[in-house]
Amino acid sequence: MNLAEIDRRAFEDVAAAELRGLEFVLPRLGKIADHGVLWFGLAGTLGLTGIPALRRGALRGVIAIGLASPSINLLGKQLFRRRRPLVHNVPPMRILRIPGSHSFPSGHSASAAAFATAMVLEAPKRVSLPVVGLAASVAFSRIYTGAHYPGDVLAGILSGVAAGLTTRLFWPVPARAHVAHFDRVIEHRDPQGAGVVVVTNNDPETIADLRNELPHAEFTDCQGDLEGKLEEAAGRARVLAVCGGDGTVGTAASAALRHGVPLLVLPLGTLNHFAKTLGIETVSDALDAYWSGSLAYVDVATLNNVPFLNTASFGAYSEMVDRRERMQKRIGKWPALAVAAFRVLRRATPVDVVVNGEPRQVWLAFIGNCEYGKRGAVPTARDNLTDALLDIRLVSVKRRLRRLRALAVVLAGRMWPLSDYESWVSQSLTIEADAPLRVAHDGETENARPPIVFRKHPKRLSVFVPI
Predict the structure, then answer these.
(1) Considering Cα of 39, then 40, then 43, then 48, what sign does the dihedral take?
(2) Element (H or E) spanning 259, and its range?
(3) What is the CATH code for 190-292?
(4) What pLDDT does 418 receive?
(5) What is the DSSP string of 168-208?
(6) Other C-beta atoms within 10 Å of 220: how many?
(7) Where would I find the DAGKc domain in this sequence (predicted)?
(8) In this predicted structure, what is the pLDDT of residue 415?
(9) 138-180: pLDDT as tens digits
(10) How far apart are CA 167 and CA 170, in angstroms?
């Protein structure tokens, strides 16, 4: 008995099966999934939750469907041209319509598996497992309603899973990094927040729930003088809590280090890379970390003794940040970033510097606090915040064609390295130049006077992390 015969017999067994309660549900579930409507609707619903993991899963799912659907409909079906099953044994009440396209592989099953795989990669089990169950139901409905043979569905599922996993090649799945834990939790910790000074520039409605959760905490508005307010707060705090993105958190880390107090990161900024690396994606995650009292040591890097927690850079990227900041109030952050990237592509030129005593013409330089992903000129994600290393990546570009390739790597992230790409790890880096360099660190830019010295300070900053 060959595979085609086994497939037909399995189809006939399903056609003859009577599943009480599903005769009405499964055909309509398959119809709702036509053209991905079910999955796009679910993605929109998950996106509206505001929960980062669910929003990422929804976006990854849509991208995965975008990869799976053309490969199935434009390649798979045209290549194999398998006819649809004969439905004379399928009860008429299950057949809502007979598709006119070829049968192998199943496009419905591919889209369902692609979306479910993306959710498994990103979302917690309490959300991803029901999505997997829904996807399995859609796939089974294609056999139950006579639209596909089981082999069509299996091939569609495998194609969808492959599409979901393929998204990891250009969009790594965030993972909580390794940290060095204290042997004890913080002492004299008040669950209602006594001794906690919260520095924020968010509107009152955004932090209203936070005030309710920490009624004994002191709240300070840092608008206008962020560095000064953080310095004052750290001087009188037992715990310094900061609301904001990476730039604000980096400034808070400087104050926390000077005063020797632990830092509680509340991810309420536009970009929250450091918080996500700690496993803190929401304010609820941060509060859970505080209430558990779980502290960790993490590494800090410095640029001429100014601490940064994620990355520093000079060259094209710092110019792009400056251009984006000048435009983002008028047109929004992401459109401003796109316009800035285009203008940098047209006008940026390499900078002449001396790197650890060796002359270089550098178009783009990244220096990471701890080692990031292995490939490409742009750091992506870290799995260790205590490795005592700087991740150094340089791209030297002179000709326009190579500049286009370099910018493609900057925007796309994990790509294969360029011929002019160098990377290594070290505990220090010295940059010399004839004039001050515009340097970006944790999303902020400044003029740095050479020599510019980057150094690593292992396990220096204490932060709250979820257990």
Answers:
(1) negative
(2) helix 246-259
(3) 3.40.50.10330
(4) 55
(5) HHHSPPP-PPB-EE-SSPPSS--TT-TTEEEEE-S-TTTTH
(6) 15
(7) 229-307
(8) 43
(9) 988 888 777 777 888 898 899 999 999 999 887 777 776 777 6
(10) 6
